[in-house]
User: Which sequence fits this backbone?
DNA sequence: ACCTGAACACCGTTCAAGT
DNA sequence: ACCTGAACACCGTTCAAGT
């Protein structure tokens, strides 16, 4: 149950009305995205889903982008940042755990991953995730500046890979067709490596598998660096 | 000068009209994106830019997404895939060269990088880049299947990082404000690692620097793997 | 004080009508 | 055969008008 935006101090509220809370709006938005797809989320459709009007939404978020940031932070809230669950882990295990946790959170809400190209996470839950990442690295013996650099790099790696979830769908048959001719028209003998891969019957892997591959190699490299490579 | 879509066989054309070519449309689209920003590219604005009409654009591309794919492939066309320029390089140097080349191409057209989340490159130039990457790895002694896996992973790494170019701008002051309170309201003493980084006066790095950092670590890891780690 | 319908200035896409 | 203006069904955002 992640913290929302204006309902963080859930108690002391301007008296009278109950907190119809931005969190409710964000939850509804995420629900629409998960169930009907990102394209189905408009201020109008969301307002209708809440039996409200678009202008009311704008009293909680100054713009659609701000609402989207709320949704992203809602997803970030699903990441485990409890210090207790990291205490027994090495820096490498800790990095692996939180990285996979973030990636899996956006894997559970694949349509929101598309938003990551336009919107760098800036919410409080993102800040908590960042804190945990930095703590894992610093506690693991990394120099503070190196830890900061590494944490920022890891964040881009994770969110960058997650944003690639989108490419798996989205391109319609008609769009592929636009290029099919051009590609089939190419001299395949000039593409020996591609042909070799085809002959080896290599099956394309999923974004998940490729992320794990990249993460392991990168952690290997980090280990090398830390031990003074 | 990258190959376009329907003007690849530039000579043998249905007689009469000159090839008003999809390539011209794509060039104009990229120009609009570079000069006025991605948000300024609409079928209407592009049509006006070409002294044409939207319906005419649809005679060249079945949908806006297909046109966008054309733009992406146009950028991919700026990547050096000439075999001669790779002959003298080790697999690691070759990987580094093509990876940076791709990343820099989208760095020169930052606004197009935003498109990478929604649209996995599928054009002929993307195919040529893929071929060169695979060739570098296979010629470098990688097993064909491992090379395929590695090439796919590298592609996601590069495009994922490139797609993060977008987050640098886009979030407006008003949107950040939505979260400023919530974050400042947080107990900063509960964020010791973040505080330590702030004390160390660490300056945030650019996406470019972080990509290079990640790429080097990853290549280190690959080297380890190749030498039977 | 809070909420609403309607308006404004846009979209992508399609199609009847023109030359 | 090729192109066009206008239409259709949407957008995000704003604002006068209601209670």
Assistant:
């Amino acid at each position: 149950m992640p913290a929302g935006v204006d309902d963080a101090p859930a108690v002391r509220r301007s008296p009278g009305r109950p907190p119809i809370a931005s969190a409710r709006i964000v939850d509804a938005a995420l629900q629409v995205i998960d169930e009907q797809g990102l394209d189905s989320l408009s201020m109008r459709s969301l307002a209708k889903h809440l039996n409200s009007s678009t202008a009311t939404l704008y009293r909680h978020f100054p713009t659609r982008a701000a609402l989207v940031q709320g949704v992203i932070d809602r997803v970030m809230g699903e990441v485990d940042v409890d210090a207790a669950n990291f205490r027994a882990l090495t820096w490498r295990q800790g990095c692996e755990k939180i990285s996979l946790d973030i990636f899996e959170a956006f894997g559970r809400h694949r349509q929101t991953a598309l938003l990551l190209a336009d919107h760098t996470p800036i919410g409080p839950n993102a800040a908590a995730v960042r804190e945990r990442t930095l703590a894992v690295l610093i506690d693991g013996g990394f120099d503070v500046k190196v830890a900061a650099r590494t944490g920022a790099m890891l964040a881009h790696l994770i969110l960058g890979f997650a944003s690639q979830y989108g490419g798996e769908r989205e391109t319609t048959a008609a769009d592929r067709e636009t290029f099919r001719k051009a590609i089939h028209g190419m001299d395949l003998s000039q593409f020996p490596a591609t042909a070799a891969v085809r002959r080896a019957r290599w099956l394309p892997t999923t974004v998940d598998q490729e992320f794990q591959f990249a993460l392991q190699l990168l952690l290997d490299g980090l280990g090398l660096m830390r031990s003074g490579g």
Notes: Chain B is about 60% helix and 0% strand. Residues 50 and 121 of chain B are 25 Å apart (CA to CA). Residues 144-163 of chain B form the longest helix (20 residues).
